[in-house]
Amino acid sequence: MTNKSNYEFLLSDLSKLKGVGQKTTSLLKKKKIENIFDLLWKLPKSYTDRSRSTKIKDLKIGENQTITIVPNKYSFPRIRNLPNKVFCLDDTGGIDCIFFNSYEGYVRKILPLGKEITVSGKIGFFKNKYQLTNPKYISEDSSLIKQIHNTYSLTEGISEKIYSKIIKQIIESLPLLDEWHSKDILDKFGNIKWNEAIVELHKPENIESHKKNFYQRLAFDEIFSTFLVNSEIRKKIRKKKKKSKFFDKSKQNKIIKKLEFSLTNDQKKTLEEINKDLSSTNKMFRLLQGDVGSGKTIVSLLAAYNTVNSGFQVAVMAPTEILARQHFNLAKNLFSKRINIELISGKSEYKAKKEILRKINSNEIDIIFGTHAIFQKKVYFKNLGLIIIDEQHKFGVNQRKRLSDKGGNNCDVLLMTATPIPRTLTMTLYGDMDLSIIKEKPKSRKPIKTYSKLESKIDDVIKFIKKEIELGNQIFWVCPLIEESKKLDHSSAVKKFEYLDKLFPNQVSLLHGKTDLDDKEIILDKFLKREFQILVSTTIIEVGIDFPNANVIIIENANKFGLSQLHQLRGRVGRGDKDSTCILMFKSNLSENAKKRINILKESNDGFYISEEDMKIRGFGDILGFKQSGIKNFKLADPVQNSDLFILAEKEIRRIEMNNEDISKFKPLIKLYDRADIINDIA
Ligand code: ADP
Ligand code: MG
Asked: How far apart are the C-alpha atoms of 218 and 195, rounded to whole Å?
């Protein structure tokens, strides 16, 4: 039996600790450190990122690095919004430390002139100088840093000393926890216990010990707890019984015959997997994953068709109205008039909308298309059998689970994403679902020719565009965020629009984050109808609309994007049968690293391959903005370095599932790693 009080010590709040008063508690709370475990679990980042000290001349731009420097000169501008700056030196060069939203006094205190300080953070380069923005790990005593690499992140107001003292106190009173892993697993980590491992983690001499048992075990625990929760959700959903769907496959095949193309093998295979789920008495909770342009839409619509033919209703949700309309039109053209298909739009008049809602409720509509937003409101289905959600990569585990609950007793769920991600990430992010993957693209598809160009050579690009327009082709021109601020994003797109509008009068339109939703739809619609030739926009065109006539995409300031995102953007073109081109524009000559990245993109059109490579170069937290998606980052485990642990964890989960093992022994693990909300919901 698990002794509850054992692990509850770790979950107790910080006021239990000696020397931790209200002030410290509230400072820590700001950093989301609420209990003792959070404190213990705070440190590890310093291992991977900040282990080695570098000289300024050897700094690598874009990477997290640690340097020991001497502050040499302050600059505290009196103009609001300009950052405070400290120019610092070592014996090989200089670097600017930049502080946004900071007080002069604070900067003076942490970077005193003439003293040797060790700082760490992501290295940037601006106006021919290295820079470090808001350096996070700062210590006055560089000898301390060199020995004690586990400098805890600088929570303003809490000194290193206090921090270390608190940790020491916790470690001394750590209770022994009952083991949750099987013997086979423990053997792989030299039988080290969790307690021992966490103590090792906080030992200074253990810096750079990724290969040691303690590190591997803790990383494994972290991965395993995520997978276990996923597995529980999957099990729980699968256990739910529903009415199986009976449909006549010859009807489906008639539709397939009507298509202008034949399905790829992967399309056929995934359709079969979905059909099997529809026919079963267990609820479907499936992800259809496939690269941009791999043809997921038709697969999902055929599933919708089969569902209707078995007497159920279907809801299809897309992230934008125009995409919903595109799917709607496709279904209208493809399916017989017998099937009632409607589009519910934000723009529909109140009366019309009400009528649609009534028809949904009385089963007079078979397939309803709309945006996610519309379905968040109250829509009551008479007999919902399938929810299809397109391009959903922004959903987290919790949101998905709620969705499956919401659909009702007989409702299957099919999610689609055009975000190819590495395998280790798929297990992490989508382990709660069954997976269908389309790897193969339609044979007719030609690779998109990809070039890079300096911005100073824009005239060449303009010449190229002129020719394309003469051939009747359309062009996307993407202006990314220049700075993190939305304002600038908007103004750069406006400027580009003005510039292009002079060169191509009446042939250019503009879309940006501030364009109002209705206008946006109208503009995209006009583009689709070829009423103008060049669409200047920020990245809002990223999501799955099919513009068969657009075959050129220009992406400015392309180093602002990750490879996967560039691939995604590039996927807006190359859908028709014409040759298509992607031009990546850069402000200055590319560094070796950037060249390496861009070459991957030039060489390959395979989103899965690109995402693997992207992750190797950038680490997984950054790819495709998973950070913003609310999906938790791993602290110790690294999907690139520890892919063996991910695979081991998956194997162990499958074993536990197969044997139907009791998982209550894992409760402490799950609680510690803060997955309790989900697991409680399951229990
Ligand atoms: P995505 O997987 O990105 O959602 P879509 O479903 O929008 O891709 O398909 C992209 C384009 O490819 C569409 O114009 C579609 O009609 C076409 N398409 C789909 N399947 C095939 C196929 N097997 N052969 C040729 N073209 C196809
Ligand atoms: Mg799509």
From this structure: 10
